[in-house]
Amino acid sequence: NDGRLRPSRQGGIFKNSKTGKVDNIQASELAEGVWRRVALGHGLKLLTKNGHVYKYDGFRESEFDKLSDFFKAHYCLELAEKDLCVKGWNWGTVRFGGQLLSFDIGEQPVFEIPLSNVSQCTTGKNEVTLEFHQNDDAEVSLMEVRFYVPPTQEDGVDPVEAFAQNVLSKADVIQATGDAICIFRELQCLTPRGRYDIRIYPTFLHLHGKTFDYKIPYTTVLRLFLLPHKDQRQMFFVVSRKGLDPPIKQGQTRYHFLILLFSKDEDISLTLNMNEEEVEKRFEGRLTKNMSGSLYEMVSRVMKALVNRKITVPGNFQGHSGAQCITCSYKASSGLLYPLERGFIYVHKPPVHIRFDEISFVNFARGTTTTRSFDFEIETKQGTQYTFSSIEREEYGKLFDFVNAKKLNIKNRGLKEGMKQSYDEYADSDEDQHDAYLERMKEEGKIREENANDSSDGSGEETDESFNPGEEDDDVAEDVREFQKESGVPGEALAALARKENGGRRAKALGWGKVFSISQSKKGKDPNAPKRPMSAYMLWLNANREKIKSDHPGISITDLFKKAGELWKAMSKEKKEEWDRKAEDARRDYEKAMKEYSVGSKADSHRGERSKKKKKKQEKQMKGKGDKKGATSKSSSSKSPAKSMSDSFKSKEFVSSDESSSAESKKEDSEEEGAASPPPSSEDSASGSD
Q: Region Disordered: start and end of each range (predicted)?
């Protein structure tokens, strides 16, 4: 765990750069300082008078003289040099000093074990096994160490039990002794998931569930958070246990956070299992023996008094909807991101807490799936990147102002410009290729609105009403359906708007970022057919369009339909029934007109069929006469060569293939062939053929 050690005249301060935990070592408490060579260069070990041990490594060899002089001058302490034994022997002597177990060979230590890292100690016949708390941030962790203890000849002393007692006296082994201060029954826990009874002991917290039990020492708790849910009806209570502190284990899953979910309406009366004098002496007025109030307030109040840490709540940030959090997704799970005064926290799966002092930069990126949202990326100084996606575009202005006020480095703002982009600029840059056409289409819509004749007949006579957002239609974009659902504008109104905006072929829904298709059914349509009746909403809209325009001067077409949808939605049932009756009357008139139109269409169709049959009969008769003419020409071809040449221009093939000639001309030709007239000359035949 990287950090910074700052020696001073009053002592030394070490701040962990990952967890933010601060170790403060007073100069008056220092008892010994040891300098030695370790795996990562050189290390410094500090022992205090009360038995605590602090070890730091990563020093350079040249820094020994500076530290030695500083210790002599300000701490009156000699910095001793002691090397570790590297013989590789596994037989030696165990010495207990303070909170350290030292395994020595001769006078040189081989390794040291901080007993505060021991989680369990078990004994065998001649064996003692030590188990350790795990550090999830380390690539390799030490699980356990076994010591063989040879039997001795001394009576009444068991060396194995003596070894175990020395370890347990300093180890961080939780043992539930005595009664709990108070118990909270069946609390809803999000991580680890389930319902747990929480028993509050003086030094640790005990979670008792149906399958798992957990014990959390108060010394391992780093931070407490109390966060309101976005629905304003629930509260999150978060206990952070990050870094070296042992996580909660559930099988192979480990949890560094304990998250409880409370309802604001749930109250409780609590009585502590202590007398009033003990409560006053231990908690100094922070708790009383009898308390009552909301369940989340009681839990947070008890935890604050026992852990002795402040509870962090959201600051002054307010999102677009007025909530103190932002809805987003992290690692394919939806959750809430809370901007705090000194960091960000995301709940709940998986929980993430990022402090401002460990952030390298933040980045606002366009959404990968839709233009109505953006991603918020955070990269820490250690190189870890967190991406919170699917944030509503309306949250951009509030979040940008918050990040800018906290003086965080914004990557995509540019190093030289350093200027805040306006919300509109960011929104435009977040659009797809169709959005270049969007602004022009808006302007054209305004011009059409000013010049168009918005009569009731013009907008109500549209017959193409196939667009319906309520249906599962592949041709209609999902964005259109969502917009229609949110705004309340009926589908036929959107279809009419789309046709008006782009000639009725393909229309871009204003502000939706996608192009949707309006099916056209005008091909082969009879202009004399009755026009489809308007719905109740369209009748009302045509009657009130001018009033809406006068109440909102300069309103665009899109906003006009939005406003009309809101007014129609808010209209009482009685008023809507009036327009429903008008629509029903129009529908009956339409059905009556359609029946009359259908009867007329059938009569016309019958006349057309008779005409076609008559024409086919005439063509068949003319084809038979042509065959007869061809046979006569063939029989007389041997008498006159000129006639044969003439007949070649009026053969059977010529007559049957010449469909473009009229029936009257064919009749005259056949009559001429049947008469006993002299054969025509070749010139006449040629001219007639031409």
A: 443-489, 594-690
